[in-house]
Each structure stands twice: as structure tokens, then as C-alpha cells.
Task: inverse folding
């Protein structure tokens, strides 16, 4: 290792510290709220008739760089079945956020990813530059998807049908 390589390493570490973690947390919580609104909409027919009830519970998450913060856990009551929809956080290598869906018969995950992504295995993109500063690209639209159970590496769109299927799987319906 040369002194120049070490200098570049120190510079990269310092630049990584320039992330606005409060803004990252707030964007994550905003995506989480949007997910809950979508689920409420998907279940609207059943909640309005009283067949399914929804309640929220405040939980504490603690993530590297972001620290401790409060988030909401969604709890669905379907007859005697209860399904917990619990955020795990936003600081994951493969996803922009993960929410665990836990029922009496198992669990599944909802993941926040680029809208165009269809596989749990991410595409690797290599970008080369000669000198100059790295430019941030345009914001990539994110979307909640269902992570299909292994061995499949597929991510399913979160639709009424796919969400109902997920609920059936985790409750052994």
C-alpha cells in the first residue's frame, strides 16, 4: 500500500460521512407510510366490513449511522389470525428497506427496491471515470415488492392478488 492509496482511502471515508442520515431516515419512514397506505387500500373492502382490523404500534429501530428512531409496526387481525408487519430498517446491502411479514405459519418479506428490479440478486453496474468528481445520477424510483421464498430469486410486484397470497402463506390459509 502506498501513501497515495491511504490518502485516497481516508478521503473516501470522510466523503462517506457527508450523508444526511436524518434525511435518509425520513425518506425511509415516508416509504414505510406509503406501504401502510397501500395495504390499507388493498384491504379496504375487509376493513370497512369489520372482517379485518388494523392497528399500529410504535417500535424502536436502531441502525448504524442513523441511530435510534421510532417507526410504526402494522398489525392485522383476521379472525383469530394476527399478522405483524414489522419494519426492520433501511440500511441493508441489497435493499433500500425491509419489512417482515410474520404470521402463525411463517414469515415473508416486503422489500423496497428500484421499480425496475425483478430479481433479489442485484445487477452490478461498474462506472469508470478519469479524474473529476463523481456526479449523482437522477433519483431512481423505488417500489415495494414481495421477496419470493427461496430457492426463487424473484421479486413480485405488490398487487392485491400477490398480497392476499402472501397473507394466505404466512397464516396457512
Result:
Amino acid at each position: 500500500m502506498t501513501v497515495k492509496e491511504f490518502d485516497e482511502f481516508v478521503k473516501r471515508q470522510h466523503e462517506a460521512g457527508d450523508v444526511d442520515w436524518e434525511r435518509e431516515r425520513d425518506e425511509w419512514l415516508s416509504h414505510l407510510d406509503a406501504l401502510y397506505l397501500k395495504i390499507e387500500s388493498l384491504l379496504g373492502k375487509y376493513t370497512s366490513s369489520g372482517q379485518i382490523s388494523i392497528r399500529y404500534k410504535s417500535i424502536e429501530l436502531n441502525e448504524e449511522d442513523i441511530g435510534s428512531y421510532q417507526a410504526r409496526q402494522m398489525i392485522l387481525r383476521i379472525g383469530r389470525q394476527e399478522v405483524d408487519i414489522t419494519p426492520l430498517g433501511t440500511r441493508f446491502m441489497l435493499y433500500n428497506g425491509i419489512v417482515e411479514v410474520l404470521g402463525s405459519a411463517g414469515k415473508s418479506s416486503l422489500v423496497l427496491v428500484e421499480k425496475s428490479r425483478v430479481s433479489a440478486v442485484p445487477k452490478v453496474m461498474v462506472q469508470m471515470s478519469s479524474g473529476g468528481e463523481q456526479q449523482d445520477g437522477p433519483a431512481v424510483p423505488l417500489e415495494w415488492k414481495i421477496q419470493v421464498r427461496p430457492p426463487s430469486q424473484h421479486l413480485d410486484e405488490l398487487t392485491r392478488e400477490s398480497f392476499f397470497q402472501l397473507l394466505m402463506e404466512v397464516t396457512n390459509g
